[in-house]
Amino acid sequence: MSQQKTANFTDLELDDVIAFREKLLANRPNDIKLADNVLLMLDCRVPKVIGTGVYSRCQSALSSKFKITKVNDKHLDTNFLINSINECREIIGQFEINRKVAVQQIFEGTRHKIKEQPVYCGKFLDFFKETQAICGLCYNCYKIQIAPSSLIDLMRLSMILKIIELDRDNTRKCMIELREGINKPYKGYIYCESESEAIHCLEVLRTHLERCGLAHITTGISHGCSEYGMEYPEFKFSDDGSHRSQQQPDEWRRVEEDYFSEPFSEKGQILDFNTQEITLRDVICYETWIKYSEIIGDDTHKLFPVVPTDGKQKGFISRAEKQAPDRQAQLLELLKD
Fold this sequence. Notes:
The chain has one domain (1-111, 142-223, 269-337). The chain is 45% helix and 11% strand. The protein is built from 11 helices and 9 strands. Mean pLDDT is 90; it is low at 1-7.
C-alpha cells in the first residue's frame, strides 16, 4: 500500500511518534491541534504494529477495506461513492475519534516541487503577508483550478484526483473555501511547475471529467496563489500571456534572501500523499464538507447523514455561517455557467 512519506523519519521512528502522540491524545481528547496532527501522521503511515491508540486502530479498520481493491473507477459512480463514504463514517463511528477537527482539504500525489526545489507554500505566503513581496520560485508556479458547483461533484472530483495519472504525479487537492474575498466555495487544484505543464495537465483532467459526466465543472489555469493576484492583478494568469512579463524585482529578491537567511528544516516534511484509499483524515474532511454544504445551502448534503452542528469546531461553523450568503450566490453563478 502506497502511503505518504516524510523526510528524515524512518518507518519505525514514525510509528514511535504516532504511538507517543496517541498516548498524549488519550489524556487530552479535546486537544484539536493534537488530534489534527495525529490524523496527518496516520495519513502518512498506518503503523505496522497496531497498538492501543484508538486513532491508529480506526485507521487500520478503514485500511482493511482497501487491501484488495483500492480506490478505482467504481468510486466515480455517485451511488457507489455515497455508499463508500457512509460505510467509512460508520466505521469511524465505532471508535472514540474527535470528529470536531474541521479538516478542510485532501491532498494527493507527490510533494510540490519547481525545478526540483521543494516549495514551502505556507512559509512563502507568510513572507508575502509580512512584506508584500512574492518569492522568486512562485513566478514559475501554475495551478489547474477546478470549481465544482455542488458537494457531490466535489467528492467525485476528489476520487478523480486520487486515480488520475500525471507524468510527475503532481500534488493535487480538493478543499472548501473559507478565505475572505476568495471566490467559489468548492475548489480542486493540480500544482504545476510551468505553464506548459499546466496546459498538459488540464487536457488530461478534462478527459477524465468528460468520461465521468463532469464536463460541466469549471476549470482553468491560475498563476501562483490567489492572494498574489488580488494584490497585483498583473500577476494573474491571462490568456494573452501578459503574465509572462512578470519578473521578481531586485528589491524583492534581496528582501527574500534576508528573510530566508536560514535553510529550511526538512524534518517531518511530507514527501508524498496516500492515493490508494479513503483514509481516516479523508472521512473527517468529508464530514466537514457535508456540514459546510448544509450551511451554504447546497442541497446535495442531503445525500448523506447529518453532521450535527456541535460535531465541528465553533470557529469553523461561525466562519462558514458568516460567508454563507456570498457562497450561496457564488454557487448559483457556477450553475449558470
